[in-house]
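User: Quick sanity check before I run a bigger batch. Here is a single chain. Can you write out its predicted 3D structure?
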Amino acid sequence: MTRSILIVGVGGQGTLLASRLLGRTLLAKGYDVKISEVHGMSQRGGSVVTYVRYGDKVASPIVEKGEADIIMSFEELEAARWLPYLKKGGSIIVNTQQMDPMPVITGAAVYPENVLGQLEDLGVDVQPVDALSLAVEAGTPKAANVALIGVVAKNTDIEQSVWEETIKNTVPEKFLEQNLKAFRLGYGA
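Assistant: Done. Predicted structure follows.
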């Protein structure tokens, strides 16, 4: 059986490190893993999505609409934007951080209110996480991505130690302790 995870966010939030950690952990557990990253205008704060598919044998990295088991969203509006990709019975793990897109910054639009409440009203399994606060507690706001990975990890059948080993082998030494702490805070959230 193939499972699919979408990692969505805004450029600069660390989605690529998150996908690397996810992919390497799945490989360590012996899964066939396919990853496809779509950057768009990520360098200018635009939407970023990474498709991660894993299982015994995976033919394509692309996740079609209605196929994602989990959407890991680094920002509320991105969770709503990618909702059509979530399968029935899937869940959205979302950082409660809000980042204004360009139309809001320029005054052409207003950031919608109660995005997560609207998703829940649609019957979506939403797991909100204040990953930014967890990262700050760990010592750096830049580790929000790893705190969010901790929450995703808790929703898998992969042991915490395997995830932590991947973090140790991926994150540079000078950032390791803060990232491990952020992961553990997310895992316990």
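The beta strands are 3-10, 32-38, 47-55, 68-73, 86-95, 125-129.

User: Great, the batch can go ahead then.
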